[in-house]
Design brief:
With 55 residues, this protein is α+β, with helices and mostly antiparallel strands. Helices cover 24% and strands 15% of the residues. It has a two-stranded parallel sheet.
Length: 55
């Protein structure tokens, strides 16, 4: 029985980086263009007082 390697792509929605409305738009677009999975972080507060992502 031969095995088949399949590449699956996902979109990670970083809640600390974008507003909920923008994340939803990104997720809808990712699904429309064929991404296999959409994952959302559970960290919805900014990493610093000035906002933005960690790093």
């Amino acid at each position: 029985m031969a095995s088949e390697n399949v590449l699956r792509l996902g979109y990670w929605a970083g809640m600390e980086q974008y507003s909920p409305d923008r994340l939803l738009a990104h997720a809808i677009h990712a699904e429309a263009v064929g991404f296999d999975i959409i994952v959302a972080s559970d960290h919805f507060h900014p990493w610093s007082d000035t906002g933005g992502q960690a790093g």
